[in-house]
Amino acid sequence: MIAAAETPAAREHRSQAASEQTPPCRSARIARQSLWTDRPPVREPILEVRNLVKQYPSITAVDGVSFSVPEGICFGLLGPNGAGKTTTIEIMEGILTPSSGEIRYRGELLGPRFREEAGILFQKTALQDFLTVRQSLALFRGLYDRGLDVEEVIRICALEKLATRDNRKLSGGQQQRLLLAIALVNDPAVLFLDEPTTGLDPQARRNFWELIQSIKARRKTIILTTHYMDEAELLCDEIAIMDRGRIIAQGGPRQLLQEHFEEVLLELPRQDFPETARHLALKVIDSSDRVEITTPDLDTTLRILIDAHVPLRNLRIRPPNLEDLFLELTGKELRT
Amino acid sequence: MMQRLFAIWHARNLEFLRDRATLIFTLLLPIMVVVGMSFVFGGPERPLFKVGVLAPQIDRQANPFLQERYVAFVPIGNESEGLRKVTHQQIDLLVDLRGSARYWVNTDSAKGYIIEKLLLAADPGARRQPVTGAAVRYVDWLFPGILGMNMMFSCLFGVGYVVLRYRKTGFLKRLHATPLTAFEFLTAQVLSRLCLIVFVTGVLYAGIGAVIGFHSVGSVALLAVLAMLGALSMIALGLTIAARVSSEELVGGLLNLLTWPMMLLSGIWFSLEGSPRWVQWVAHIFPLTQLLEAARAVMLDGAGIAQIAPNLLYLAATTLVFLAFGAWSFRWRID
């Protein structure tokens, strides 16, 4: 009876809410898949970035960046705001012209072939007014010689229920799914995603990650910029960490962590760590609301803290992550 | 190329047709102006005779007819111009005072009948040259101007602001990431706007003709070709303005800088005959002046393609020049 009394609008809202949620089993699947991401590159580079420099009158946004991206992997460009990620990716997309350096796609400088075979999701894009989701996709499909059927892209990005909706009336997560669908409409060999989940709520982010996982499963090459380390750890096979226009570390996420950390991390709330404890023989790093102690010998460190009467009821022990790596490399937090 | 061009053209058409407020405004504005002007100017003429005089200069003492009161004597440059004005009843009589003592009178004109009596009373030997032709009301003369003005605003503002909006929102940047070229994008915009203008102008031409009627003796097909070329030239002009600029204020200023001189000097509201030569020269630079001059020649005088060929060529040439410049200077994104 309740279902029968429900209005169409309410039903649609309920189904949308359901579509924004991710069942626990899916989260588990994402976690499992992240274990597979540290595989070594096995193919020829699909993209090569050589000595890239981009200078503006008052700043050098990209300062001699070089790297190559093997085909079929998800490559992450990480760094804080202003690190030069977006400038680098926009030069790679052929949108910006570099001051010097070059980009090669399958061994050739960027040209018509690259434009046919690249899919792009910018950080911020508005679409043409008064067009539905399906019409927006048809517009972009019409700009490519080859690609996927519009209905197939709608299905891949779970836009079936939104296909006839005006694109201006989509939520943030739905809008990003549409923009991803547009990026996929030409069945690209390489997909650029520039901070695709910035501004999305946690649920929408998780949904978006699932979509990207499914695209990865199709062996597409993905270039992803993000300042969310969990996103990078989950999705990327290889990462380059940027700061002030330069690459300061590059490799597989686990490989980088193993190279830079032999220790585990102990986290304590700042108020639980007395000033007197700072004289102890510990490697302490101050963070915003906590202190972090890195140690290769957990037992000894715990004994020192107990002997110094440091309260341990809020102690958290965890392996280091990419946030810690960035802190280690630059001395500052990532999201600054 | 055609597939990409069609995709952009189709999407732009959908966007315009679904923007109901703009569509209705585009249709209503010129109708309101024409109806308003017909009320203001469509009433009885002032009781004043107007006589055209073919003479190096008008010496009122030289001829008793020239001393008649309530008659305006206006100098006419040449015979063909004078004949056209008599035929359209823009003057009531044309007299030749260069020695032949001839005069032309429109036998369909009541005022011509009366002023002829005054002339013959003053100069019984004057030789009569009858012509015929219906009067051209101000609203008939104004009508092409209103259609042209509507086209001008639609071409310049409709295209200029749309491209600017696309650039500011990042839509152009997104299109730039596809195989679409600047020339394809601009051509699609031109064709989309051209279709809309042809449709709107056609509705206005037929609608206003049915409601208040107007005088048109020329070929409708030639008028359609002329309207399309005029629209193309002005759309391309709008695109050159929007090709690079990223600021609404600057685009607004540039468009006003173009539209106001065209409003005043292109002959929408009044004829430029009698204005200084340099003003006429400047006015003829504007595509709208060329369009209106040719449209009035076709509608009021029944001119054929040969007579308006210079105007058509000018409009075609400016279209190509503006489009080439627009494509060359086009910028997809805001730096």
Description:
The complex is a heterodimer of chains A (336) and B (335). Chain A has 336 residues and is α/β, with parallel strands linked by helices. Chain A folds into two domains: 45-254, P-loop containing nucleotide triphosphate hydrolases (Rossmann fold, 3-Layer(aba) Sandwich), CATH 3.40.50.300; 262-319, Alpha-Beta Plaits (2-Layer Sandwich). In chain A, 36% of the residues lie in helices and 25% in strands. Chain A has helices spanning 2-5, 8-20, 24-34, 85-92, 112-117, 133-141, 150-156, 172-184, 202-216, 229-235, 253-260, 298-307, 322-330, and strands spanning 45-56, 59-70, 74-78, 100-105, 108-109, 118-121, 190-194, 221-226, 238-243, 246-251, 264-269, 283-286, 290-295, 316-318. In chain A, the strands form three sheets. Chain A has a six-stranded mixed sheet, with helices on both faces. In chain A, strands 2-1-4-5 form a four-stranded antiparallel sheet, with helices on one face. Chain A has a four-stranded antiparallel sheet with strand order 12-13-11-14, with no helix packed on it. In chain A, helix 6 (133-141) packs across helix 7. Chain A is globular, with a radius of gyration of 23 Å. Residues 1-41 of chain A have low confidence and may be disordered. Chain B is α/β, with parallel strands linked by helices. Chain B folds into two domains: 2-40 and 137-329, no CATH class; 49-131, D-Maltodextrin-Binding Protein, domain 2, CATH 3.40.190. Chain B contains twelve helices and five strands. Chain B has a five-stranded mixed sheet with strand order 2-1-3-4-5. In chain B, helix 5 (138-169) runs parallel beside helix 8 (220-242). The longest helix of chain B has 32 residues, at 138-169. Chain B is elongated and about 80 Å long. Chain B starts with a helix and ends in a 6-residue tail after the last helix. The A-B interface holds A 93-95, 112, 115-116, 118, 120, 122, 124-131, 135, 138-145, 182, 186 and B 3-4, 6-8, 10-12, 14-15, 18-19, 166, 169-171, 173-180, 332-333.
